[in-house]
Recover the amino acids of this structure.
């Protein structure tokens, strides 16, 4: 079906609708369709496409929020930007993963590159996400009242 749509001229890089919309890659990442995501990446879609204006997620944010660790790794190794213009999506992806208790996904992202002090401060100042504690907090993970320990490298 996908190949038929491509042959018919489907736009692979169509922007996300303004409210809760997704690009093809954002949908594949959010719903963990690895094969489709690989095919889209091979076809050179924008792995850093912005999410919808409201309730939107970039591909890496969607994958991290849902704990899709294979997808997170695929995107990290497919030129997802984590610095400069991609810094915000990188920090949000970590935050989304932590908010949903997907500690492995958050750890993969944090190990990809070290967070600097400025990024930790920026994340807290801008409140890119409202953190809520995971319930219950796994015993193997330290917790703190301000959530700072989960952002440590």
């Amino acid at each position: 079906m996908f190949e038929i749509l491509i042959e018919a001229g489907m736009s692979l890089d169509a922007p996300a609708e303004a409210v809760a919309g997704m690009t093809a890659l954002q949908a594949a990442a959010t719903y963990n369709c690895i094969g489709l995501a690989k095919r889209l990446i091979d076809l050179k879609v924008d792995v850093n496409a912005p999410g919808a204006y409201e309730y939107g997620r970039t591909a890496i944010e969607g994958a991290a929020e849902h704990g899709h660790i294979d997808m997170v790794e695929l995107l990290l190794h497919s030129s997802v930007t984590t610095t400069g213009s991609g810094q915000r999506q990188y920090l949000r992806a970590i935050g989304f993963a932590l908010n949903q208790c997907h500690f492995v996904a958050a750890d993969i992202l944090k190990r990809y590159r070290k967070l600097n002090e400025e990024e930790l401060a920026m994340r807290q100042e801008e409140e890119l996400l409202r953190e809520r504690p995971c319930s219950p907090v796994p015993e193997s993970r330290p917790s703190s009242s301000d959530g700072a320990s989960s952002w440590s490298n």
In short: The radius of gyration is 16 Å. The chain has a mean pLDDT of 84. The longest helix spans residues 87-99. DSSP finds eight helices and no strands in the chain.
